[in-house]
Amino acid sequence: MDFGYTPEQEAFRNQVRAWLEANQPPPLTPEEKARLTEDLLWERAKAWHAKLYEGGWAGISWPKEYGGRGASLIEQVIFSQELARLNLPVGINVLGIIMTGPAIMQWGSAEQKARYLNKILKAEEIWCEGLSEPGAGSDLAAIQTRAELVGDHFVVNGQKIWTTHAHRAHFCQLFVRTDFQAPKHRGLSCLLVDMKTPGVTVRPLRQITGEAEFNEIFFEDARVPRANLLGPLNGGWQVLISTLMHERVGIGETLGTSQQTLGELVELAKAMDYLGRPAIENSAIRQQLAQFAIEAAAKKYNGLRSLTSRLKGLPPGPEASISKLVSTELTQRMVKFATHLLGQYALIEQHSPLAPSGAWLLRILGCESLTIAGGTTAVQKNMIGERVLQLPKG
Fold first, then answer.
1. Class level of CATH domain 7-92
2. Are 344 and 285 spatial neighbours (Cβ–Cβ below 8 Å)?
3. Which superfamily does CATH assign the domain made up of 127-234 to?
4. Superfamily grouping for domain 253-388
5. pLDDT tens-digit profile of 192-214?
6. pTM recorded for the entire structure
7. The pLDDT of residue 384 is above 90
C-alpha cells in the first residue's frame, strides 16, 4: 500500500498550511489571561469559526450547496493534520458539524436539509446531542424520554444528562421513545428540537476542571412539530447508530492529534529537570516516549485503513470504534505521563504565571471524559469483540 500523497494533495497541504499560518487566532493578551473566562474563550472561538467559514474551511467535505468546499476525504484528513500541527481548534459547532449535519444529510427531508445545514456550518445555530440519560448512559437503547404524538406535534417528557454545550445550543438532536410497547431497540425516534421551546430547561453541570460545558436538560410537556422528525417514526435506532459512528470518526480519525501530543511531551521532557539532568536524557523516560510513538504510529495506520474504506464509498465501519478506543486511551496515558514529568508543576492552574505552557492541569483533569464520550471504553471493546473479532457473547 502506498501511504504517500500525490503532488496535487501536497499542493493542497501547502495551501492549507499557508492559510492557517496567516489566519490563525492571535495568542491571548496579558489582559485576556488575567480575565480568562469561558465566555471570553467562546467569543474567540466564534471569531475563529467565522474566519474558517469565510475561508471555505468549515466542514470542508460538506457539499458546496450547503456552504462546504466539497473536499475529498484525503483533503479533509490533510486539513485535520495541519490543524493539529498548529494546535488549532476546528471551530465552535463541532457536534453539529460531525454528528447532526451528517445525520441530516443521510436521513433528512429536502426541507430539513435546506433549513438546517448551512446554518450549522456557519455556526449561526449551535447544536447539542440529546443522548445519555440518568438511567441510559452506555446503553442508549434503554432511553426513557417519551414523545407522544398528539395531532401534528410530539409532546416530550423526560431528562437528558451530560449534554455538551446545551447551555449555548439553539437546537438539540434528541432521541426519544415513541413506541412504548416495542422492544427497546425499536420504538425510538429522532427529533430536531428548538431549545427555546416552552418546557425545555437547561441546567449546567460544573466539572472538576471548573468548566460547565456539560448540562442536564429537562423536558416537561415540550411540544415539537411532527415536521421535526428526522428519519422514520420508530426507526430512530438506525439514525442513532449512524450518528454515533460519525461522532466516533470525528473523535478518532484525526491522524495527527496523537503525534502532536507526543511532540508536546518530548518538548516537555527536554525542558524539565529529572535527577539533575534534562528528563529527555533518562533512559526510562525515553523508553516510555518511544512506546507512545509506536502506539501513535499504529493508530495512524489504523486511521488510514478506515480512510481507505471510506474512499471506496463504504460507511464508517468498526475501524472507527478501534480508532476511538485507541485515541482516547492513548491520549489519557500520555497526559498522565506528563504529570510524572511536571511533578508539582502539574498542579498549577492555567492562569498562574508559573503554570507550564500546554494547559496540562486542564488536560489532566479532563482526559478521563473522552473515554466516556461517544461510547465508553467498555462499549467500544464489546463492539470490537463482537463485530470485528466475532467473539461469542459471554
1. mainly alpha
2. no
3. Butyryl-CoA Dehydrogenase, subunit A, domain 2 (2.40.110.10)
4. Butyryl-CoA Dehydrogenase, subunit A, domain 3 (1.20.140.10)
5. 999 999 999 999 988 777 777 88
6. 0.79
7. no
Contact 43, 81 (CB under 8 A): no
Among 75, 91, 82, 69, residue whose Cα is nearest residue 25: 91
- Given 213, 247, 253, 264, the catalytic residue: 247
Domain ranges for the chain, please list them: 7-92, 127-234, 253-388
Clarify whether 211 is annotated catalytic.
Answer: no
Is 62 a residue whose pLDDT tops 70? yes
